[in-house]
Design goal:
Blueprint (H helix, E strand, L loop, with lengths): L1 E4 L5 H13 L3 E6 L4 E6 L7 H5 L4 E5 L19 E3 L2 E3 L5 E5 L6 H13 L4 E3 L17 H14 L3 E4 L6 H7 L2 E4 L7 H8 L4 E5 L6 H13 L5 E5 L17 H8 L4 E3 L1 H5 L2 H13 L4 E5 L17 H21 L1
Parallel strand pairs: 7-8, 7-14, 8-9, 9-10, 10-11, 11-12, 12-13
Antiparallel strand pairs: 1-3, 1-4, 2-3, 5-6
The chain binds phosphoenolpyruvate (PEP) and manganese (II) ion.
Length: 337
């Protein structure tokens, strides 16, 4: 961290701050120019209160050299993290395919979809039992009954389960059934929930918030990791912009940016980005070409009857075409890395 003092700061004030920083345990590199004095801090500055420093009358600017996220940073962990979910790997060149309906609707619906997507190349089964809906009048999910339905599908297909956890109170319940706990876009900064899932041993699928920056997403991952759980998969699912033609705007640039900043796997959800099934395949292919480590795609055998997100759900046949296409794109991508 570098602290830039304002021009004409009295020497006594520079000395006072220098001494204070030393008592906090930092080595301080003092550099005095004609107009500006710089204080370079050496040591772990993650705990420093930047705003308090900035409040000092004589401080012009405070600049971080290191990112505020540490455990999620590639700086401290240069190799890609590879996460293994029941033998299915993601990260470090391993592509993970997650598919299933937006919501768990019935045992029959889940079994039909699970069996078809498994046959088409999906490794993990998704499905929401607790649904975070914009309207309180929309279908809220089957809750624990939905979790039981998912577990039965796992028993019959062997597919590990990915399902969303919407509150701290239900983490233990969801963790009893699921292999991967999904934190949805609307909960990305629910810090109590992040800490709670950070105390479990489950893999966490952390989706980017609707209006979250890349740094905020990585700080959310840091919350989970700082509790001891380092199995975090990040997910770009589109952000809110002024564009209304699509449901959200898929931020393709987030994929290479996150690859540079972090060692954590990053997958893409083209379904919630597009909001329209016709656009799901092109966005998914673009994400894989940009280096994404996998996809989470909404698939429904009868989208016109789906309780939620039917308009963005692929029919199984289309999902099958998408899987073969992205496998080829990923092979080319890996060859050119
Ligand atoms: C979902 O995956 O069903 C979902 C609600 O996604 P998001 O949190 O990205 O909106
Ligand atoms: Mn959905």
């Amino acid at each position: 961290m570098v602290i830039v003092m304002k021009p004409n700061t009295p020497q006594s004030e520079i000395h006072r701050l220098h001494e204070k920083l030393k008592t906090l345990g930092f080595d301080v590199n003092l550099s005095q120019g004609h107009n500006y004095t710089l204080l370079g801090l050496i040591g772990d500055t993650t705990q420093i209160n930047e705003s308090q420093l900035q409040a000092n009358t004589y401080v012009d600017r405070v600049m971080r050299v290191q990112h505020a996220f540490k455990r999620a940073s590639r700086h401290f962990h240069p190799q890609d993290t590879v996460i293994d979910i029941d033998g299915h790997k993601v990260g470090g060149g391993h592509l993970l395919m997650i598919a299933g309906p937006c919501a768990v609707e019935s045992q029959e619906q889940i079994l039909t979809i699970a069996k078809s997507v498994k046959g088409l190349g999906a490794q993990l089964l998704r499905g929401g039992a607790f649904k975070p809906r914009t309207s309180p009048y929309s279908f809220q999910g089957l809750e624990e009954e939905g979790l039981k339905v998912l577990l039965e599908a796992k028993r019959q297909t062997g597919m590990p389960i990915v399902t969303e956890c919407v509150s701290s109170e239900t983490v233990d319940l969801v963790a009893n059934y699921a292999d991967v706990l999904q934190i949805g876009a609307r909960n990305m900064q629910n810090f109590a929930l992040l800490k709670k899932v950070g105390q479990t041993k489950k893999t966490i699928l952390l989706k980017r918030g609707l209006a979250a920056t890349i740094e905020e997403l990585l700080m959310a991952a840091e919350y989970i990791m700082s509790e001891g759980n380092t199995n975090v998969i990040l997910c770009e699912r589109g952000i809110r912009t002024y564009e209304t033609y699509t449901r959200n705007t898929l931020d393709i640039s987030a994929i290479p940016a996150i690859k540079e900043l972090s060692h954590l796997p990053i997958i893409c959800d083209p379904s919630h980005a597009a909001g329209k099934w016709e656009m799901v395949a092109p966005l998914a292919k673009a994400a894989i070409a940009a280096g994404a480590d996998g996809l989470i795609v909404e698939v429904h055998h009868q989208p016109e009857l789906a309780f939620s997100d039917g308009a963005q759900s692929l029919k199984p046949e289309k999902y099958g075409h998408l899987v073969s296409a992205v496998q080829k794109i990923a092979a080319i991508q890996n060859a050119y890395v």
